[in-house]
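Please fill in the sequence for the structure shown.

STRUCTURE ENCODING:
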């Protein structure tokens, strides 16, 4: 965010002719953080990767830079996973495949 509650120039700085969620981003530049954890200045661009808003978290406290439900796992995939640790490897494969589609 630009410090005034608006979006930064991130979209205008992109030189790729791709939808935002298909930009080539190196995995080592991505950090995961739960929505329930407080936002910090070093977080950088904050993008939610879920279709459901977390209970008890205000949009202001979440301090999101972008809103892109398109990169979240589908409702069907999320329901199939059902937070079952035994399905973790498979959901990773299915989710990655869906991002490339």
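FILLED IN BY: designer on duty
SEQUENCE:
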């Amino acid at each position: 965010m630009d410090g005034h509650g608006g979006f930064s120039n991130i979209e205008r700085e992109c030189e790729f002719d791709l939808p935002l969620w298909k930009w080539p981003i190196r995995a080592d530049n991505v950090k995961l953080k739960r929505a329930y954890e407080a936002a910090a200045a070093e977080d950088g661009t904050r993008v939610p990767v879920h279709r459901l808003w977390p209970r008890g978290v205000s949009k202001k406290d979440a301090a999101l830079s972008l809103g892109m439900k398109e990169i979240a796992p589908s409702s069907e995939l999320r329901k199939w996973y059902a937070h079952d640790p035994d399905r973790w490897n498979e959901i990773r494969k299915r989710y990655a495949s869906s991002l490339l589609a």
